[in-house]
Amino acid sequence: MTPLFVALALAGQAAAAAPAPVPPAKAAATYRDRLPEDEVIYFVLPDRFDNADPANDRGGLSGGPLVTGFDPTHKGFYHGGDLKGLVRRLDYIQALGATALWVGPVFRNKPVQGAPGQESAGYHGYWITDFTRVDPHLGSDDDFRALVDAAHARGMKVYMDIIVNHTADVIRMRECEGQGACPYRSRADYPYQRRGGVAGPAINAGFAGDGDRSAANFARLTDPSYAYTPYVPAAERDVKVPAWLNDVTLYHNRGDSTYHGESATMGDFVGLDDLMTENPRVVAGMIDIFGGWIDRYGIDGFRIDTARHVNPAFWQAFVPAMQRRAAARGIAHFHIFGEVSDHEVRPAVLAEWTHTGGLPAVLDFSFRQAVADTVAGTRGTDAFAALFDGDALYAGGVATGRTLPTFTGNHDDGRFATFVRRAFPKAGEAEVLDRVKLSNAMLLALRGVPTIYSGDEQGFSGDGGDQDAREDMFASRVASYNDNRLVGSDRTTATASFATDGALFRQIAQLARIRRATPALRRGSTVLRYRQDTPGLLAVSRIDPATRQEVLLVFNTATAPVTRQVEVEAASRRFTALAGPCAATATAPASVTVTLPPLGYAICAATPE
Questions:
Q1: Which of 132, 340, 563, 587 could serve as 595's disulfide partner, Cβ 3.0–4.6 Å?
Q2: Which of 380, 478, 415, 608 is nearest to 123 (CA)?
Q3: What is the pLDDT of residues 331-348, one digit of tens each?
Q4: Domain shared by 461 and 340, yes or no
Q5: Ramachandran category for residue 309: left, alpha or beta (phi over 0 → left; psi -120 to 50 → alpha)
Q6: Are strands 562-567 and 100-103 parallel, antiparallel or unpaired?
Q7: Same domain assignment for residues 321 and 387
Q8: Does residue 50 form part of some domain?
């Protein structure tokens, strides 16, 4: 048994101690060399993380919540978290085991939007008016620079959350005023060369349609009133930055998306102004905007919001341009991953965008669904066969599969504990905790780049998706957050949630430490050893490509114990338990006995003879 395996085994037995942060001097010299699959990502919405500077709570605006957007008692408004708060909590994030920070959008947002009585604020960052500066609710450009520099000094990467699909809701349609909705109008029924439908007067003479993406062709698209009559209220005519974003002809202006068919890339996403990303002016403008953030701050990657709602040809131009900008800055492994939201175990839906759009990676919604179906549901563990088989469909194949950021819950769909409690309403708190722990073990040990949503490590359980899953890490004043039962904790969100002694924090920290020290868990190939069509055993081997060392991962999704023989490599004769119960030796060449308690798991590393 090597010293490394001894150390890891002891670490698994002493999981109560949180790991020490990586020494900054040592980490800073190597973080650029890490591959995307080497990371453990921590995702945070800055407004909901920590409030280090109350002076910026109202974003420099004066007035009530409907002007400033600030109301810490309302789940849909700004609460005061900022970039300085992120900086002062980097010790906490690093103690959890995260090596990369995915920061929710930091761009200047429209403070408040929505129909009267339905207003909410841009605290989440997805209603951008100025793509070039930090939202003053979160701090300043210098504060963002300080965050990136502080993270890099610790050897941590920083991924920015960016949006290309849309801006804030500024453009109005005269035909929809007072209706509350603006139905999508298709290109067939409302062609570009007619005003208001096929029988309308001729406009935009010579425009050959959006399939011809030349500048000369789009120069002929001068009248945007083909489907609706768009206009911008006088008070907001110059609100967007850069200034070219104020030109209404650079938007689709076809009404609200149905998220299917043509409207998926041309309709307004919940009313937000949908950019005409077929237009070369928009392509060049977005390349300039986001290339500038790379140039100025040296960030390490982009998470792309609503990627599937942008035409694939845009990404074919944008992605290589960003990779070139990063390479010129000395950023060798700039990680770009798009949001292609889907709620089935259907890798083909995700993989399509790595081909048609050329996205290097996508958020692995299929992984999330497989874990939800099996651990927060009753589907058999054969769901993972469909997941792993689908890796061959990605551009780059299984190597790309290892770079997909995996997750079990998020700020849109909800937290994993929410799914568990919905699926098993009669489960006791011990079972809920065991199911959440099992999901964490899958997240940190299986292929992909584990992505932890802030608060999951504190047992946040949420009430649902969207605003109901965006609890404050600092002491919250939102009643619907503070009445939630946390998983594995007697605390509530009414007090600050940065403790490192909780059951889930300690478990995640232990698993992250094991992952960082075990190359097979980061870069290894995946061999599916056992699955079944009912709840029960899932067995997977990860094989280190350099040493051929095998690490056997076993998970029990059933509420009864399981004992079974599992195939392993013939050379894998002895095993060290990195986590959970592992047999010390193989039962016979190429076979080992696996015994797990209900909802248990184990990480078993084959050791040299």
A1: 563
A2: 478
A3: 999 999 999 999 999 999
A4: yes
A5: alpha
A6: unpaired
A7: yes
A8: no
| Separation of alpha carbons 1 and 351, rounded Å | 40
572 neighbors 592 (Cβ within 8 angstroms): yes
Report how far residue 568's alpha carbon sits from residue 286's, in angstroms, rounded to the nearest whole number.
49
Tokens 């890796």 locate to 391
Residue whose tokens read 């959008």: 105
Amino acid at 605: A
Length of the chain: 609
Do 315 and 421 belong together in one domain?
Answer: yes
Tokens of residue 121, six digits:
């604020």
Same domain, 130 and 172: no
pLDDT category at 72 given cuts 50, 70, 90 is very high
Domain extent at residue 90: 56-112+119-160+279-293+308-326+334-515
Q: Do 417 and 388 belong together in one domain?
A: yes
Which of these three, 481, 515, 549, is where a domain ends? 515
444 contact partners, CB below 8 Å, separation of at least 6: 40, 450, 508, 511, 512, 514, 515, 521
Q: Give me the torsion for CA of 11, 364, 22, 521, rounded to 10°.
A: 40
Is the whole model's pTM more than 0.85, yes or no?
A: yes
Amino acid at residue number 602? A
Q: Looking at the annotation, which residues are catalytic?
A: 305, 339
